[in-house]
Amino acid sequence: MFNQIRLRAWSEGLRSQPSLPLRVELWNGQRLDFSPDPPRVTVHVPHARALRYLLSPSLYNLGRAYVEGAIDVSGSANDMIAVVNALAGNAVAKNLRTALPALGLGRLLGALARGHTRQRDAAAVRYHYDVSNEFYAAWLDPGMVYSCAYFDNGDETLAEAQVKKIDHILTKIGVRPGHRLLDIGCGWGALAIRAAQRYGARCVGITLSDNQAWLARAQVERAGLGGLVEIRLQDYRDVGGQFDRITSVGMFEHVGVRQLPAYFRRMATLLAPDGVAMNHGLTTTDPDSHGAPNGGGEFISRYVFPHGELAHLGTVIQAMQEGGLEVRDVENLRRHYARTCAMWTDNFEANAQRIKGMTDARRFRIWQVYLAGCTHAFTHDWISLYQVVCGKAGRDPAAIPWSRRYMYAQA
């Protein structure tokens, strides 16, 4: 009876908001519609116990309920995320100022207490990336680039935009024939292969994922670049030598906020005196590095990126300076990542039946919620993506041209 009263109050609260293309179907056959138009999303509540997820909604609670099978949701992934966000936002908007620190800080403090050891970081990376190479190939571009694409005009295909992203990075840092390049978190090898093939660089790519290393090495051999590209299964803390250029693309989110100065100090140690590096990575838009609102960060930490932490851009720049690096250029690609995630989501949905055959239902739902949720988060400025070009502090950056015009020269 108490839940029925709360359900009535909850539904009346939603109806006072702009109409939602949502239907809620209860275990007793009751239907609740929140728009005069046909529903684009239907939430199925199979038993009374599952009501608690709707009555105390957050992106974490609702995402968890869907992933664990406590509720079922039908509709497109993008519509699902928009509706879920409306449900969560309606419930917590009045308390958002206090909710954000509580949701993010607990996770942050827990991660700091556990620390980022080599073993724990390797296990977290393998949890995320070693689903299977076929799983990722089903929704990524043919080059299997798992990071923000770059849309020069906005009408590029995903494959075109990923190649443009890699070229944008390599142009920004001024890669030249014979340069020794280190790619920290090399994924399936696309950047290292492109740097060797088009720019004549000698590349070392490192990853902690067995699946990535295996396929990246196969891709290198297939491209006939065995003499120029080496793929290592190695932690960044164990790399030696010096490099003319260093790239880190979509990797430093695994490092940990407290470890960022040491991470950038290691990068500075590996960088040649006149070398140039770029960090391309996710950031939170919360100034206190509390993560995404409405429980989105908590969902990702539990289900998608164990021990992952997002820092604010200001924290990143400070950590670079503490690590002995000078920031030379910063570019915000949030809009580009929103489009990238939307394309990934469309690919995932288009290949849903094939993907379901590659993994279990729980993991399928995790990635379905995660990809569509990231599209929403980037679109609404909950999280962002920055490319930061840097070099060793205290040196004349002679390797970089006077103006930024060179970054956008036509190939």
UniProtKB/TrEMBL annotation:
Keywords: Lipid metabolism, Methyltransferase, S-adenosyl-L-methionine, Transferase. Residues 10-91 form the DUF7884 domain. InterPro entries: CFA/CMAS, CMAS, DUF7884, SAM-dependent_MTases_sf. Pfam families: CMAS, DUF7884. One of its GO terms (biological process) is lipid biosynthetic process. The keyword Zinc does not apply. The active site is at 374. GO terms for molecular function: methyltransferase activity. Belongs to the CFA/CMAS family. This is SAM-dependent methyltransferase. It comes from Massilia violaceinigra.
